[in-house]
Amino acid sequence: EQLINLLDTFTRVQAQRPKRPTGRTATSSNARKKGEEIESGDAATPLPPHSIHRFRNAGDAMMKLDMSALETQFGAPAGEDGGLLFDVDGAAMPAMEFPNCPDFDRFQAKTKDMVKNKRGTTTLAFIFDKGVIVAADSRASMGGYISSQTVRKIIEINPYMLGTMAGGAADCQFWHRNLGTKCRLHELANKRRISVTGASKLLANILYSYRGMGLSIGTMIAGWDEKGPGLYYVDSEGARLKGNRFSVGSGSLYAYSVLDEGYRFKMSVEEAGELARRAIYHATFRDGASGGCVSVYHVGPDGWKKLSGDDVGELHYQYYPVQKTPVEQEMTDASTS
Amino acid sequence: MARYDRAITVFSPDGHLFQVEYALEAVRKGNAAVGVRGTDTVVLGVEKKSTPKLQDSRSVRKIAKLDDHIALACAGLKADARVLINRARVECQSHRLTVEDPVTVEYITRYIAGLQQKYTQSGGVRPFGLSTLIVGFDPHTEKPALYQTDPSGTFSAWKANATGRNSNSMREFLEKNYKETSGKETIKLAIRALLEVVESGGKNIEIAVMTQKDGLRELEEAEIDEYVAEIEAEKAAAEAAKKGAAKET
């Protein structure tokens, strides 16, 4: 309900506002919108030569996807070849107006907090000599309520790349599907598969352009390309890190301890899978927001393969079978005397 | 915001785009340019019209570097070339930024051709009046490549091609004399093709050589003169041999 009120305020305020002069901040916030191609700022506010906005979306020139579903109500959409007048790649959209409220900075922060999902999950991925292992739990929680125990948190981007889900389920699912589309288009246009580096960069650039707008994604992109196994951590703040071992989510602390302790570079696929399974299990044991079942995937030179999916309850009794405790006193029938 | 909505390039009743064909005319009037692909080298050569005495010839470079491993030469309107080259350079860097990989020759050719095509189908603009020859090495397969684009926006890969003034005679020469070459032989083949239509001498030819290891290198006038001398000597020897053979029979 709060969200609806918020949107109401936005639309009402937008209808009333006077046109704001395009200042430097306005251009930058517009530049974040996906699908806009801004080669250089308007004549009035040229972007500095080092500005990332200058280059960011030029790469999308050849693969312009229909993002009309994502277009917000701020500003009129630019026409098809509307910008062809002077600037072939489209003119900047009109500025986003700030709502008329007493404390704008707190207002923004409160909105962000409200829409931000806490990342209640445990996912992990690591590189070893035979590829990449990716594992995750399957619990979705809304505060204290467990909404599902059977969420698929490992998303198959394409037959040789996997992504993990942490944060907002819808955000992760949509943007991974979108990334899969972009990877396929890249493959078709360039007649070769996209590298894990490239795919993670594409996703990171998109997420950066939505920075501050409430997306909540903490994902790992794992895959096997020409250079061998690749693993990147990408999140909705715009970070993109290359690494050998990552764990994301509220249970990541527990998973890291088991993972770091048992990790060796040279392992068999079964050993590596078992390590991942144990790490997730221990995280689900201690973290209330993780649970359900553990899925373990392996990405090798021929693509990914699901190794196992085990319920953590059953795993618990496998790792810690019930000990028969000796009975201290046995109750016997009273002797009939 | 005022927009141009009337297209300048429109179809004629018999299916021609006259503006594009006129642009090709402009290309035909431009300087001769030739490109030859060898097994480990690609060479670009351009005709250099005599520079006025007071002009600084270094500012009139006709072969442009798009990235460390890609170069471009063109024939036609040089002012249009500047615009196209700048956009291509930005695209090369943008590609490096978004996928952390250098562009392939095919990708950047596709981009340039796409740009040329866009300007044949938009309001208020005219087509670019130039054909380009793009050479480079594929960063993944390390194979050399030569592509050509034209004002209509089509592109294709070639083993050797020429564009600009008298390109037909150069192409005929190349078709007759092309063989798989490498290193110096490739350079000589390019120079021989250019010499068919250009006065001989290092002053009138600009040559750039690209190899996988060393990237793009412009040849000095003295070097070109050496090659020209070699070629003339070979030609003379061939003539003499022919005459000798003719005398015997």
From TrEMBL, chain A:
| Superkingdom per UniProt | Eukaryota
Compartments in which it is found: Nucleus
Q: Which reaction does it catalyse?
A: Cleavage of peptide bonds with very broad specificity
One Pfam annotation, family name?
Proteasome
**Keyword Nucleus assigned:** yes
What EC number(s) would the UniProt record show? 3.4.25.1
Q: Where is it chiefly localized?
A: nucleus
By its UniProt entry, which CDD domains does this protein fall under?
proteasome_beta_type_5
Q: Which residues cross the membrane?
A: none
According to the UniProt record, where is the region Disordered?
14-50
Q: Does Kinase appear among the keywords? A: no
Q: Which GO terms describe its cellular component?
A: cytoplasm; nucleus; proteasome core complex
Q: Which GO terms describe its biological process?
A: proteolysis involved in protein catabolic process
EC class of the enzyme, as a word: hydrolase
Identify which residues the record assigns to the active site: 121 (nucleophile)
- What PANTHER family is this protein classified in? METALLOPROTEASE TLDD (PTHR32194), PROTEASOME SUBUNIT BETA (PTHR32194:SF3)
What does the record give as the function of this protein? The proteasome is a multicatalytic proteinase complex which is characterized by its ability to cleave peptides with Arg, Phe, Tyr, Leu, and Glu adjacent to the leaving group at neutral or slightly basic pH. The proteasome has an ATP-dependent proteolytic activity.
| Subunit structure as annotated in this protein's UniProt entry | The 26S proteasome consists of a 20S proteasome core and two 19S regulatory subunits. The 20S proteasome core is composed of 28 subunits that are arranged in four stacked rings, resulting in a barrel-shaped structure. The two end rings are each formed by seven alpha subunits, and the two central rings are each formed by seven beta subunits. The catalytic chamber with the active sites is on the inside of the barrel.
What's this protein's name? proteasome endopeptidase complex
Give the species this sequence originates from: Eragrostis curvula (weeping love grass)
Upper lineage is: Eukaryota, Viridiplantae, Streptophyta, Embryophyta, Tracheophyta
UniProtKB/TrEMBL annotation, chain B:
Q: Where is the Proteasome alpha-type subunits domain?
A: 4-26
- Annotated PROSITE patterns: PROTEASOME_ALPHA_1, PROTEASOME_ALPHA_2
Highest taxon of the lineage: Eukaryota
Task: Provide the Gene Ontology terms for cellular component.
Answer: cytoplasm; nucleus; proteasome core complex, alpha-subunit complex
- Please name the CDD domains in this protein's record: proteasome_alpha_type_7 (cd03755)
- What parts of the sequence cross the membrane? none
Q: Which GO terms describe its biological process?
A: ubiquitin-dependent protein catabolic process
> By its UniProt entry, which Pfam families does this protein fall under?
Proteasome (PF00227), Proteasome_A_N (PF10584)
Q: Which keywords does this Swiss-Prot/TrEMBL entry list?
A: Coiled coil, Cytoplasm, Nucleus, Proteasome
**Record localization:** Cytoplasm; Nucleus
Coiled-coil region list: 217-248
Q: Give the multimer and partner information.
A: The 26S proteasome consists of a 20S proteasome core and two 19S regulatory subunits. The 20S proteasome core is composed of 28 subunits that are arranged in four stacked rings, resulting in a barrel-shaped structure. The two end rings are each formed by seven alpha subunits, and the two central rings are each formed by seven beta subunits. The catalytic chamber with the active sites is on the inside of the barrel. The 20S proteasome core is composed of 28 subunits that are arranged in four stacked rings, resulting in a barrel-shaped structure. The two end rings are each formed by seven alpha subunits, and the two central rings are each formed by seven beta subunits.
PANTHER family tied to this protein: PROTEASOME SUBUNIT ALPHA/BETA (PTHR11599)
* Function per UniProt: The proteasome is a multicatalytic proteinase complex which is characterized by its ability to cleave peptides with Arg, Phe, Tyr, Leu, and Glu adjacent to the leaving group at neutral or slightly basic pH. The proteasome has an ATP-dependent proteolytic activity.
Q: Give the family this protein belongs to, as stated in its UniProt record.
A: Belongs to the peptidase T1A family.
- Name recorded for this polypeptide: Proteasome subunit alpha type
Q: Which organism is it from?
A: Eragrostis curvula (weeping love grass)
